[in-house]
Model the fold of this input.
Amino acid sequence: MKRGILVLALLAILATGAFAQGFSMAAGGGLLFDWSPVGNGYKGTIDVPGMPGSYEGIVQNLSFGGFGFFDATYAELDVSFAYGIITGKTKGSYYGSSLDANLGSGSALQLGFTLLGKYPIGLGGFTLFPLLGADYNMILSNWDKNGHPYGTAMDFNQFGLLAGAGLDFPFGSALFLRAEAMFHLRFPTKPWKEAAATSSVGGYHAFKATYGMGPNIKIGLGYRFGGGNGSASSSSSSSRSGKYMLVNADALNVRKGPSADTALVGSLPRGTRVEVLDRSGTWWKIKSGKIEGYVNSSYLKAP
Done:
């Protein structure tokens, strides 16, 4: 547990230091689905002379629940609460006899913390962002199929790594729908590492703990503070008096009229060069390639 907390804290410090300027903030929540079809456990060979064999113990975890997130453009912090369905089985053979068996099922309540680094890329009307990070899942309670507590819950706490991508679909002035799909790699838990070590005693067995792998899916609704579905630093009007400006937001919405209530024409990524056609009020009319419409001038800056 201590190792996982220290790693997450270090990642948070690095992310904050690297991206301390020029970020927007958003928050929201939604539903999550996490599955480990390649489960944690241990496997290896049975090296008894004249009686070769192999053995594999596997625990698969299917979790679903809810999560909340805080987003700072280049970093995302998630806190989740999920219910897990756990199944166990063995596979293998020994001296010609099968060792395949089902070990039954159980359940668990899990509290998870996830820190992700991300890089938003504006693509028309939505934003794509690659994701890379780590998570730490704490088992609050677990029990077998008969409802009896199973082992020490905290012994099954688990640290993992994640990689994938997400999409933000803006609607309205500040709301957006977020979808993320990642692949996780979960490190062996304490009971499986101890089981592998115990099985290897005496030189007759050669076992090692295995990693859990599978998909992690999240779908949620978010709100971007400051509106505009993008981030920006305000500039004075005197520094933004040129004909051409640069987009200073992750995904700046371009609208049909000078209001956030009008239809969405498109979206421009950070750094896009736009031609200013009209500067009346807060909403300026701009043109960039085939996209022409109105944007909140707070999200433009001088080149």
